[in-house]
Amino acid sequence: MKVAVLLIDSPEREVSMRSAKAVANAARSAGFEVTEISVINDPSILDDIPKDAIVLPISHGANAEDGWVQAELEKRNFPFLGSDSKSSKDCFDKWTTRRMLEKAGIEMPKAARVTKETFKKHALTKKPYVLKILNGGSSIGTLIVRDPARVEQSEIDDIFDMEDNAVLEQLIEGTEITVPILDKHALSVIEIIPPQGLEFDYNNKYNGATQELVPPKNVSVEIQEQAQEIAEEVHRIMGCRHLSRTDFMVDRGGKVFVLEINTMPGMTNQSLYPKSAAVAGYDMPELIKQFVGLVERDFKN
After folding, report:
1. Which of 105, 100, 136, 97 lies closest to 260 in space, CA to CA?
2. Whether 141 and 38 share a structural domain
3. What is the mean pLDDT of residues 287-295?
4. 3-class DSSP state for residue 2?
5. 197: phi then psi, degrees, rounded to nearest 5
6. pTM (two decimals)
7. CA 215, CA 18: separation in Å to the nearest integer?
8. Based on the structure, what is the number of domains in the chain?
9. Are residues 141 and 207 in the same domain?
């Protein structure tokens, strides 16, 4: 069977390259005939995908997770892994995600959509907060402020230089966890412990300095089960398909807050999704077989 692994150009190209390469290698180990295709702005390159191939768009960020490449694949009637174009677009926009989840009763931190001007006057800036661009991932365009009196204006400017609008969000103090979904079912919860005194930012996601515990050691079984149930619900509400990963904070009182959802989680050897899948018995080649099987099931007609 043929699979085509796509690398889509985006602001997250570095980690996308690592994810795509890991998946391509695993697919070969699983016995698939693999074509690797780099998509840079011009979607016509997609016409080079073998007509009988299953497409694995293993990339992150704009053009990759925001519905653009999914819409192009839909136009060409290619069977592909992951959420469709509408779900991808909805999930990539943090404010759209929030509106959909809050309407369904999902607990999230208090937040506001702000511009550079309205940000300065908002009450949420008086306490610890998170400021993040509407569209993005891998902690790109995310500023965590634990002491508002010590934040530099240049740090604020950097966020609004990326996008005119941002999400200003209450900072939840506690334990960060994440829950991957395979098909419609939650995998093992992962507890994320950044280096002492540092944040789970872009560098600490990929430099190996962060502890990622599967299963968690500091989160009760009851809270883990609650997070798994919520992750499955978030996956359903947002119309996701095949896979996703929902990020949470558990506050010091044990209350669980959804932060955001990722429709195409990282697949590098340091990424969270493969680590959780491994606990369920899926090494990378077996995980690719699972992915391909899901695509075959959903596109067989």
Report:
1. 97
2. no
3. 98
4. strand
5. 80, 5
6. 0.93
7. 25
8. 3
9. no
Predicted pLDDT at 301: 60
Q: Which amino acid is at 88?
A: S
Asked if residue 126 and residue 227 are part of one domain, the reply reads no
In eight-state DSSP terms, residue 133 is E
Arithmetic mean of pLDDT, 287-294? 98
- Residues of the chain with pLDDT > 70, as a percent, come to 94
For position 218, what pLDDT does the model report? 93
- CB neighbours of residue 81 within 10 Å: 24
Partnered with residue 129 across adjacent β-strands are: 145, 170
Range of the domain at 59: 2-81+285-296
143-149 long-range contacts (CB < 8 A, ≥24 apart) are: 144/171, 144/199, 144/201, 145/171, 146/171
Give exposure, 194-229, as e/b (b: 16+ Cβ within 10 Å): eeeeebbbbebbbeeebebbbebeebeeebbebbbe
Residues in a beta bridge with 261: 246
- Contact partners, residue 277, CB within 8 Å, separation at least 6: 180, 182, 187, 287
Structure tokens at 81: 């892994």
* Residue 166 shares a structural domain with residue 227: no
| Residues forming beta bridges with residue 175, ordered by sequence position | 250
H helices, E strands: number in the chain: 10, 13
